């Protein structure tokens, strides 16, 4: 009895993580970029989640014609509401759960539990953080005389670096941690990032706004010193209203005002 026990103990333990090819992950990632394409009032992002997961679910027993695939697609296309960028966290975790044979009822509970955290964290990090910060940096470029096309490219490069990186990170951490992915939402970047980005945005606004005003109005009608005073007042105001007014709304209002003044001139 000792020898067989030792042999059993020495046998290699099979890897519980299913294998998914790199091309499958590329397909899943590309599909996450269109996750809002089928948004509707009934399932919200649910159809998009099912669409993004479909390449990975093809590896279920029986392939696309099997009962396991059909049940998984129906389950993953049900109601789901979260931030579109951080939904990749759920997609990675759900792919691992489905391919690992986790019971359907547990998967459904897991999907429901993810909606709230992924929605609130994403809204604060992206809409109230990354978007206004990227816009203000682009305004600095505009204020110092960069050409409009280059200003647009600066905004797109900065914003898309953040949002694409967030999607890639989400898929990776979701797949790595599976149903235990909730712990990843305690990441310092996700927890403290919005507050730091908000402070950075307020500081950048104090530079961007006077520079932009000076370029739009012109040095002959507004001295740079006056513009700096106005910018400082606005920056203090942004700090004071932080937490009560969403940053992206303020940035859009400022951009609209600068655009109107430019057209009027």
Low-confidence stretches: 1-15
Largest sheet: none
**Fraction in helix:** over 70%
Count of DSSP H/I helices: 10
Alpha carbon gap, first and last residue: 93 Å
Rg result: 24 Å
Percent in strands: under 5%
Number of DSSP strand runs: 0
**Mean of all residue-level pLDDT scores:** 83
Order of helices and strands: HHHHHHHHHH
Structural class: mainly alpha
Q: What oligomeric state do these chains adopt?
A: single chain
Outline, from the CA principal axes?
A: elongated
Describe this structure in words.
The protein is mainly α. Helix content is 72%, strand content 0%. The chain is built from ten helices and no strands. The chain has helices spanning 2-10, 22-32, 46-57, 67-76, 87-99, 104-143, 148-177, 188-217, 224-241, 247-264. The longest helix has 40 residues, at 104-143. The chain is elongated. The termini are far apart.
List keywords for this structure.
265 residues, 72% helix, elongated, mainly alpha, 10 helices
Concise synopsis of the structure shown:
By secondary structure, the protein is mostly helical.
Sequence-ordered SSE layout with sheet pairings:
Blueprint: H1 2-10, H2 22-32, H3 46-57, H4 67-76, H5 87-99, H6 104-143, H7 148-177, H8 188-217, H9 224-241, H10 247-264
